[in-house]
Amino acid sequence: MPADGYGSMKQIICRDLSTWTQTALRIVVRQAHQAIAERGRFRLALSGGKTPIPLFRRLADRGSLASIDWSCCDIFWTDERCVPPTDEASNYGAAWSECLSLLPIPPASIHRIAGEQTPFLAATRYEQDLREHLSETTPLDLVLLGVGRDGHTASLFPGSASLEEDARWAVPVCAPVDPSPRVTLTLPILNAARRILFLVRGRDKREILRRLSTDRSLPASRIEPRPGELIWLLDREASP
Fold first, then answer.
1. Ordered strands of the 229-235 beta sheet
2. In this model, does residue 3 exceed pLDDT 60?
């Protein structure tokens, strides 16, 4: 696992999917309550892929719905594939169908990346949106991230020039897998977050988790929130 660089880091290993999902839900709800109580808003960035889907479903169920004031939330994305929102590869589309469409959240508080546009235009407009709602004093409260078997996170892939970006918050990238054109958040905005939660499940993630502690070329190893908290939430199969 990555070394504890700037903030605090902890690892949580869950025995099964139910416990894993409930733990993730508890972290999100706790962070939402704290952010709203202290600052009046909860700024959450969602990840894509299949891993967070069980969490999305729990967030939308009646019990969880009652525990978060969604009128005080802003929803962002860590990355997006450059496809229309109705495409099955759309990160926004998955979050919308599984969760957001069921929540009483104002449409203006859902800050999607317009994947149907060209990558450059989508990244430029998303950056403008981010800077209208975030700053050094109002960073993302919670970022959900995953990790690929190659060590990528968000759409930051090994060897990509985007890993060295130190000014822009959102950039267009070409992923080595389909769909290739994407937009991703960069390390400066990710590492400014108050808390980052890595969601990891499955035996196929064991080897990359072993490598992360020693290989700094892997994008996921460069996630070091300053001075925020980093949490790795694993199921038993993923645990190295």
1. 8-14, 229-235, 195-200, 142-145, 42-46, 73-77
2. no
